[in-house]
Each structure stands twice: as structure tokens, then as C-alpha cells.
Amino acid sequence: MTTTATALTERSDNNGAPTATPTGDATTPAAARHRAARLEALLGDPQDPTNPHGIAALCAADARGEPPEPTEALLTETGLAAEFVPAESGGRLTRADLLATALRPLFRRDLALGFGFGITSLFATAPVWAAGSARQREQAAALLLGGGRAAIVHHELAHANAILRGELVATPHPAGWTLNGRKDVIMNASRAGAWVVYARTAPERGPRSHSVLLLQPDELPPTTVHKLPRVPTPGMRGGLFSGLEFTHCPVPPDALVGRPGEGVTLALRTFQVNRCLIPGMAVAAADTVLRSAVHAVSTGRTGPVARRWHKPLAGVFADLLACDSMATVALRALSLLPERAHVLAAAVKYVVPDLLRENLEELATVLGAHGYEHGSPQYGSLDKLVRDLPVAGLGHAGTAACHAVIVPQLRPLAEHSWFTAEEPPPQLFRTTTDLPTLDYRLLGIAGGEDFLSASLIGSAARLAATRSAAHHQITVLADLAAAFTDELRALRSRCAALPPDRAATLDPTAVILSDRYALLQAAAAVLGTWEGQDGTDAFLTDPAWAVLALSRLAARLGITPPELPRTCVTQVLDELVRRYHTGRSCDLDGSTLTP
User: Fold this and answer.
1) 15-25 per-position pLDDT tens digit
2) How is 319-332 classified by DSSP, letter by letter?
3) If residue 34 lies in a helix (H) or strand (E), which one and from where to where?
4) Least confident of 128-142, 241-255, 435-449, 497-511
5) How many CB atoms lie under 10 A from the CB of residue 205?
6) In terms of Cα–Cα distance, which of 490, 521, 498, 516 is closest to 348?
7) Are residues 329 and 525 in contact, defined by beta-carbon separation less than 8 angstroms?
8) pTM above 0.85, yes or no
């Protein structure tokens, strides 16, 4: 079993082709792409009905309510869990954007598999990496590097769903803590080697109400812990969820992570990594559905794609690139601007899943009857992702939690940041440039300047300066950027006028403003990503995809977009079809997929 980051065994893929030996350097984009390519080869052709790691097998396990054991065994054997352990603790985790790159082959096949196998272990151990003692970090690293899992036991939130309902209470005493309570829905509770519990340690509400406890299940008195049965869920049905009940369970004092009462603060700091990773992984899952739609309209045809499918296919492709832009910028900000990424992380967490849900509805119309081929290797990904995506985002409770981060910041940003803040460093958008290592200890809580809105204003100004000498698509791009800047200016006036009671609560008026703000963040990410191209990728350097993506964002804001050049949709569709036929992914990276 793998116990170090560089000790991955060389294997063969399902066709007997040996994979390249891995590199020990996990700090570069090239190394992350290398690991992604190796994982892609190990998992084999997702459309092969005989592949035990393909879509048909994964859908069948989901229908049975079981984890896909052969695939999980393969991932354990290859030491994939090292991706979730910081390099300083013996793993390969150096940056969140590189982690997303390395894991995308897994999530292209099954969103639930990616969550169930291990990314939730990263979410669970995040407070340990942020505030844990040296011993706790060693314990968590040894568990994950040895093939084990960690489960996160959330505290209860307002607007709670099943995952966030109920909580545990830890009562302090001289010998440690006594834990009581019941939580019915916890991912991987029954098979985790560690439970990271956000336990209530103070009766009053407030920022000091909870503490984080790192529990070793085999060290707790068995009579005080009861593992509850598996819970059926509408999405991620593979037997991942079950519960725990604690009755006067003694917990040693060294189980405390950080300081007493630091649980809420740790959650706010570390959850922003989760909020950036989930959208990035969801883009990979939606990529598969888009490719299946292209397959559906291409199979049996000798000519081009029928005209009626041009706009939906090109539009969804442009949306995926917009979503990937926003997710990638947020992931990179965690390393480059860790003290200022909190609001952006909340925005990307609910904008991207919302856009992807709209995209799945569009793709369902393209797939037609094929969309009902549940469990098929070619088309089964649509039905499964429609069910899994809300669970990944924690449903309405996850959206409410993101609103709770953004809404209180709207008035301060309007008064002190918008149209005055400086633009972020250019390497935020240049994905080939190096970044500092992700350090959970540096992640800040909401505050400071809004760097992405500053980037939007800067992009608009630069486009306006070149508008007269530009070709038609650049002119349209400049018009769109100006329209988004005008929207930000109007938003500033409305947010600055919010009464204090509405600015600090989830008042419906403030929530609507936060939705508009989040879409502006997406527009800024698209413009920044387009400007940040170095010319290596001709398609991404061309403005067509950005124009189409921004026109769709504008429509969602009620902004009448300028008339698009006729070539815009054609160029984006041609690239989509080209990627489909050449086996490349439909994201910014355009990586090679298993044939």
C-alpha cells in the first residue's frame, strides 16, 4: 500500500499499455497534468461497457446503493489519497488549482466517486492542516497516505438539510470532553479512520460556540458510539451516507484541534477551499455530459451538426469555459491572495453549480430520448449528474451559507472597494505561472478589497482603449465589458443604500443583490482569463468564446447583449466538435482523454 507521495507503483491500463512513471515534483502544472494523464490511463475508456471503472459500472454500483469497490481499490493502490495531504506532511498537495487538475479524470467519470473516495477526506482534515498540532498532522497524514479516510461531522446550520441537520455537543471537564448527540447523515462515517467533529462547546450562539475535535474511532469506548444504518439519498446513492450517535463518550483533551471555541472560525477559513474545489470538479463532470450530447448529434451523420443544435451546444461549451475560468481563478487566489479569497470562494460555490444545472437542462433537450438511457456507458452520465450535483453543493443549505458570507460584505465593498481597489497580480489569470504553496494557516475571513471587481474595471478600460482599431469581436467584447462595469456601478449605489439591518442579514433584497454581484465576479473571471492567454492556445486567445460566454452571463443579469458576430457561435461550435473528435476535454486545459 502506498505510504509516500512519490511511491506510486507503475501499472498498466486496461489495454495493457504501461503508464509513465510519476515525478516526485508535485509543485508544477506539468507535474499535475502528468498525474492526471496517468490517472486517465489507469481508469480506462469510460464508455467501454466492459471496463470495471467505466460509466456503466459506476452507474450500476450507484443503482445498487453500493460504492464502486473495484475502482476504489484501484485508487487506493495507486496512492491517490496523497493528493489530499500537504507536501510538508509527505503528500502531494501544494496548490488547490493543481489538485483540481490532477483529480479531474476521476470526476469526469463520476462526481460521487470523487467525493466518496477521498475529496471529503481533504474537507475533513482541513482544520488539522490549518490549526492542528504536529501530532495531529502526523496522524491525519498517516491515515490518508495509508489508504484510510476521514469523515467530517458538520455543525448544524440554519436552513439545514439532512447533511447539516443535528449536531454533537462536547461538554468540557478536567479529563477532556464528554460527547453526546446524533448525526444521521455523514459521508463515509461507517468506513472512516478518523472523524473530524465540529462540536458545540458553548450553549450560546456566536463565533465561539463550537470547537473542532479529531477523533480516532478505534480509540473510543465502543459502548459510547453507535454507528447508524446507511441512509438512502436522492443523489450519490452508492451507500456513502450513514450516521453516528454518541452517548457520554469520553474524548481526550489532545483531540482538540486549535483552540476551544475556534470551530466556526476554522470552518469559515477552510471551507473556502472546499467551495472552490467543488465547482472545479463539477465542471469536469459536466464535460462528460456535453461530450455525450455531441456524440448524440454526430453519430450516424456524415455532414456537420444540424443547425438547430448550434446555439445550445456552443452556448453550453462557452458556459463551461466561463465556469472553469471562475473556478480556476478562485483556486489560484487561495495561493496568491489567501487573505482575500473568502468572498470569491462563496460566489463561485453557488454560481457555477447553478449555471451547470441550467446547462444540464439544455443538454437534456439535445440528448432527447438518449437522456433516459440511465446507466448506459454513453449517456448515463446525465441522469446521474442531475441527481448528484445538488448533493455535492449541499443543496439550498449550501447556497444559503454562501449568501451568508457575501451579503454582509456588500455594503462595505460598495463603500470602500469598488472602483478604488487595485487590480490583482497578472499571474492570477496566467495558469502557466508559478504561485505560492497553498497554506491553510494563511486563509483569511471576509474583508479587504475586491480584487476581481477591480480586474473587471481594468479589463473594460483596456478594451475601450483599443476598441476603435479592433475587429468586430473585440468591439463586442468591449461593449460587454462596459455593460458589466455599468452594472457594477449601479450595484454599488444599491448596496451602499442598503439599511444596516438588511446589509447584515439574508434579507431578500440583499440576497438578490448578492446574486447579481456573483455573476459579475464570473464575468470578471472570463475577461481576466481571456486577457491572461499567452497565445499558446489559438482558440482561447481568440475572443469568440469569451464573447459568447459573456453574452450569456449578461442575459442572466437582464442586460441586453450586443448583437453577436455570426462567426462567434460557429467558431465555438467548431472547437467543441474538434475537441470531441480528437479526444480533448471541454475545459480550459483541453487535456487529452482516454480514447
Assistant:
1) 333 333 333 46
2) HHHHHHHHHHHHHH
3) helix 29-43
4) 497-511
5) 9
6) 521
7) yes
8) yes
